[in-house]
Specification:
alpha+beta; Dna Ligase, domain 1; four-stranded antiparallel sheet; 4 strands; 14% strand
Amino acid sequence: MGLFLGIFGVALILILPYLEAKRKPIQVVKPVLSPPPRPIEAHPKWFYLDAARQPQGPLGISELSQLWKVQTLSEGSYLWAEGMENWKKIQELPDVFDELKKALT
Protein backbone atom coordinates (compact mmCIF):
# COMPACT_ATOMS: atom_id res chain seq x y z
CA MET A 1 0.00 0.00 0.00
CA GLY A 2 2.93 2.28 0.75
CA LEU A 3 4.17 1.90 -2.82
CA PHE A 4 0.92 3.08 -4.34
CA LEU A 5 -0.02 5.86 -1.96
CA GLY A 6 3.38 6.95 -0.70
CA ILE A 7 3.50 8.56 2.71
CA PHE A 8 -0.31 8.57 2.96
CA GLY A 9 -0.36 4.79 2.58
CA VAL A 10 2.16 4.35 5.39
CA ALA A 11 0.16 6.70 7.64
CA LEU A 12 -3.03 4.82 6.78
CA ILE A 13 -1.41 1.49 7.69
CA LEU A 14 -0.32 2.91 11.04
CA ILE A 15 -3.68 4.51 11.84
CA LEU A 16 -6.02 1.62 10.83
CA PRO A 17 -5.26 -0.65 13.82
CA TYR A 18 -5.86 2.29 16.18
CA LEU A 19 -9.20 3.08 14.51
CA GLU A 20 -10.26 -0.57 14.64
CA ALA A 21 -9.47 -0.75 18.35
CA LYS A 22 -11.51 2.40 19.04
CA ARG A 23 -14.58 1.18 17.18
CA LYS A 24 -17.15 -0.35 19.48
CA PRO A 25 -19.23 -3.22 18.21
CA ILE A 26 -22.83 -2.34 17.53
CA GLN A 27 -25.17 -4.09 19.89
CA VAL A 28 -28.58 -4.87 18.57
CA VAL A 29 -31.01 -4.79 21.44
CA LYS A 30 -34.31 -6.44 20.80
CA PRO A 31 -37.08 -5.12 23.00
CA VAL A 32 -38.58 -7.69 25.29
CA LEU A 33 -42.27 -7.44 24.75
CA SER A 34 -44.50 -9.42 26.98
CA PRO A 35 -48.10 -9.82 26.01
CA PRO A 36 -50.46 -7.57 27.88
CA PRO A 37 -52.32 -9.29 30.69
CA ARG A 38 -55.56 -10.79 29.54
CA PRO A 39 -58.66 -9.24 31.04
CA ILE A 40 -60.66 -11.48 33.32
CA GLU A 41 -63.38 -11.75 30.71
CA ALA A 42 -60.83 -13.25 28.30
CA HIS A 43 -60.82 -16.40 30.42
CA PRO A 44 -63.85 -18.12 29.00
CA LYS A 45 -63.92 -20.83 31.64
CA TRP A 46 -63.02 -20.82 35.30
CA PHE A 47 -62.96 -23.89 37.52
CA TYR A 48 -62.88 -23.96 41.31
CA LEU A 49 -62.29 -26.66 43.89
CA ASP A 50 -65.30 -27.25 46.11
CA ALA A 51 -65.21 -28.23 49.79
CA ALA A 52 -64.59 -31.87 48.80
CA ARG A 53 -61.66 -30.68 46.61
CA GLN A 54 -63.55 -31.65 43.46
CA PRO A 55 -63.27 -29.36 40.43
CA GLN A 56 -66.45 -27.49 39.54
CA GLY A 57 -67.07 -25.52 36.36
CA PRO A 58 -66.66 -24.19 33.82
CA LEU A 59 -67.96 -20.85 35.07
CA GLY A 60 -67.78 -17.26 33.91
CA ILE A 61 -66.66 -14.43 36.16
CA SER A 62 -70.27 -13.43 36.85
CA GLU A 63 -71.04 -16.94 38.10
CA LEU A 64 -67.94 -16.84 40.30
CA SER A 65 -69.19 -13.52 41.68
CA GLN A 66 -72.47 -15.14 42.66
CA LEU A 67 -70.61 -17.93 44.48
CA TRP A 68 -68.49 -15.27 46.20
CA LYS A 69 -71.61 -13.44 47.39
CA VAL A 70 -73.07 -16.56 48.98
CA GLN A 71 -69.64 -17.39 50.44
CA THR A 72 -69.18 -20.64 48.55
CA LEU A 73 -65.88 -19.11 47.46
CA SER A 74 -63.42 -17.28 49.72
CA GLU A 75 -59.94 -15.80 49.48
CA GLY A 76 -58.46 -19.26 50.06
CA SER A 77 -60.53 -21.03 47.41
CA TYR A 78 -58.59 -22.44 44.48
CA LEU A 79 -59.26 -21.37 40.89
CA TRP A 80 -57.92 -22.55 37.56
CA ALA A 81 -58.44 -21.39 33.98
CA GLU A 82 -57.06 -22.64 30.70
CA GLY A 83 -53.50 -21.43 30.24
CA MET A 84 -52.64 -21.54 33.95
CA GLU A 85 -50.04 -24.07 35.07
CA ASN A 86 -51.51 -24.78 38.50
CA TRP A 87 -54.48 -24.07 40.67
CA LYS A 88 -54.12 -20.80 42.57
CA LYS A 89 -55.85 -19.27 45.55
CA ILE A 90 -58.17 -16.41 44.68
CA GLN A 91 -56.02 -14.04 46.73
CA GLU A 92 -53.07 -14.93 44.43
CA LEU A 93 -55.05 -13.73 41.40
CA PRO A 94 -55.31 -9.97 42.00
CA ASP A 95 -57.55 -9.20 39.00
CA VAL A 96 -60.03 -11.89 39.94
CA PHE A 97 -59.85 -11.03 43.63
CA ASP A 98 -60.57 -7.35 42.91
CA GLU A 99 -63.47 -8.25 40.62
CA LEU A 100 -65.00 -10.55 43.25
CA LYS A 101 -64.63 -7.91 45.97
CA LYS A 102 -66.57 -5.52 43.72
CA ALA A 103 -69.41 -8.06 43.72
CA LEU A 104 -69.93 -7.42 47.43
CA THR A 105 -70.45 -3.70 47.00
